[in-house]
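Team,

Forwarding the record for the chain on the shared tracking sheet. I've put the sequence and predicted structure together so nobody has to dig through attachments.
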Amino acid sequence: MAEGYDQNKAIERPKTQLLIINNSIADSFFYRYNKFQSSSFHKLLYNSDMTIQKIITSILVLPFIIACGNNQKKEAQSSAADTLTYTMDSVGIRKGYASGDTAEASIVYPVIQGTSPLADTLRHYAEQHFRNAATAKAGLDSFIQEYESFAKEMEGVGPAHGWAYQSKTNLLPVYKNLYTLSSFVYEYSGGAHGNYGTMLYTFTKEGIKLNWKDILLPNGETTIQPLLQKAIAKHLSLPETTPIKELGLFIEGNTIPLPQSFALTDKGLRLIYTPYEIAPYAVGEIDITIPYADLVNVLKDQYQ
């Protein structure tokens, strides 16, 4: 393989410093800043030194944010025992080669501060998307090494094409003392198309990961079926009365399996089926939310 030219140089951006009490503001900010564009993957963050210096997600419902700087500090200090503090960080790399191919990757992730059970658990799950490496940068380096090794094997055989990897993990707004990590991952390493998916992980303030058995009533998986059928039909732009067998899902019988990913939000129970989980790749992710008003006979009281 011809010697590659390095495009590692970081893109210069002004640092942005924010003190945020409402986590939804942070999520919206990073979504707009890092919005994935499949037609121009290279516009993602590469070695950005932009950080949010202090993002505080409060377990308590704060009625307002005090405008005075001194008062803001007092607010944070007075509720320090009931907050989770973290900063957002990102690393990225793009390398071009004489063959015309590129290898590019980026990871956006929260740096969780503190040593509480919750902080330790969130940190562990956030770091799972470092591609089995100790740090985000090491994960990107290994990705580039894997591509270059593959490209060398393909010499004289055929084009290696470009590889791409993107991971973005952030915390969703807290609901009923529950913390949810949302992790989107896209990876292309050859073939007809890349693979992607969003995973949701929900934890109690003690750092315990919730599963379906924790939140559902004994017959919840049965009583939720008509709600899943209706919500999925609507997502697919089909009549809400479309029978399960006519939804075009990869399932047997008339029972829709629960997805791996779910979260309890202020709008209801959110469920995400990743591509191929129950439907063809062309359908994309099936991201639905069922209002709590419809879940009285599905969820345990404390989760409604």
